[in-house]
Amino acid sequence: MFDKKFYVSVFSVVGLLLTTIWSQSSKDNKVDAALFSDQSEKLSNGMVVLELFTSQGCSSCPPADALLETIKNTYPDNVFVLSYHVDYWNYIGWEDPFSDKNYTVKQSRYNTKFKYRGNYTPELIVNGTEHMVGSNKTNVIEAIDKYSTIEFQNILSISGVRRSKEKVSFEYKVDGDVLNKEIRAVLLLNERTTKVKNGENRHRTLKNSNIVVAEEYMDLKKTSGVGVIEIPSIVKEGENITLMLFIENQEADITGAAKAHL
């Protein structure tokens, strides 16, 4: 179980700073977008994968969610942003509709890999190789600059994507070494606004972007193949979704990525 006392003691100062820096006004959002726009010119042929572990029940998460949206809009091609909603904040009065215990387990595996003693939110994982506080603008910009200069080991492409009412089917092709690697297929809900009635964010309207709603792992024994991922019922008719594919090695480092908007 996540230790809230530990969270408060470690991140109280950070929370106070974020409260000052991050407002909900459109003016602040424009400033952030401009800052990242300046940085986007530095993006090279590398790709960056940012996995945010967040919750609608966490009062420190909305700034990270807003930052994720800014990054998504600023880097539409070479940066992959995902929002995993964990379930360990549900006990304080608001059950996050996107939360999943499997995402909490996923976060724990990452932190075990990093030899970090526990989960926290908002936590951002970069290319499966390091973690940081997901609302720290400076560190996130530095991470994007750093990893955008490192080309992935695998070139991954998606084709033949078809969306029906219940599932998404696709074809993929991989260039590069695939030994001891697997493919992670992720289905994202592009955007959803939620009125939170209870918990730490009660009476707030929260906007989440690139919400993970389904995830499947597939063996990667050949350099090409087909896959299928089901569309869960939480996705409403007419809502936009995105398919992302990632190649991972045995250490959960991401070595290739591709996406398709549906």
From TrEMBL:
Listed Pfam families: DUF1223
Organism superkingdom: Bacteria
Protein name stated in the entry: DUF1223 domain-containing protein
Lineage, highest ranks first: Bacteria, Pseudomonadati, Bacteroidota, Flavobacteriia, Flavobacteriales
